[in-house]
Amino acid sequence: MKYLRTLAILAALAVPFALALPAQAAFDGPGAKAAAGGFSGPVSGAQADTVAKAVTLGDDAPVVLTGNIVSQVAGSKDKFIFKDATGEVRMEIDRKVFAGQSVTPQDTVRIVGKVDKDLGKEVKIEAKSLEIVK
């Protein structure tokens, strides 16, 4: 009986703690702050700086593209159409990459990412970071 009572007390103490952790770790709503600091400057090692060059590269090639996100692909939360002076390409931009920034088709953005080229599928760019160019 003592064993069951001790087990019940430990379980009762652990439940509030276990429920609180996931809620705090997953909060990503209004008022959430992006991590402060980091490097702000040129990116080296990119193999392309235009859409026209990027679509000719192999899988996982690093790119830095400057242009506009012109639309979101219907039915998708993270797929967009990106356009620069040389053409358009489909982009995958996770919500966390936006880092709380609101972007419109009128905003010029710089995207650092990599080419995603799967056999028989359309070339796309996976964005790793996004910066609004002022």
What does this structure look like?
This protein has a domain at 51-132: Bacterial OB-fold (OB fold (Dihydrolipoamide Acetyltransferase, E2P), Beta Barrel). 25% of the residues lie in helices and 30% in strands. The protein is built from three helices and five strands; from the N terminus they run ααβββαββ. The protein has a five-stranded mixed β-barrel. The longest helix has 25 residues, at 2-26. The protein is elongated and about 75 Å long.
CATH fold topology of the domain at 51-132:
OB fold (Dihydrolipoamide Acetyltransferase, E2P)
Q: How many distinct beta strands?
A: 5
How many helices does DSSP assign? 3
CATH architecture of the domain at 51-132: Beta Barrel
Q: Which sheet architecture does the biggest sheet show?
A: 5 strands, mixed, barrel
CATH superfamily of the domain at 51-132: Bacterial OB-fold
By helix and strand content, what is the structural category?
A: alpha+beta
Shape: elongated
**Residues in β-strands, percent:** 25-35%
Give the spatial strand order of the biggest sheet: 1-2-3-5-4
Helix-strand pattern, N to C? HHEEEHEE
End-to-end separation in angstroms reads: 69 Å
User: How helix-rich are the residues, as a percent range?
Assistant: 10-25%
* Unreliable residue stretches: 17-34
Output the CATH class name of the domain at 51-132: Mainly Beta
**What number is the mean pLDDT?**
81
Radius of gyration using CA atoms only: 22 Å
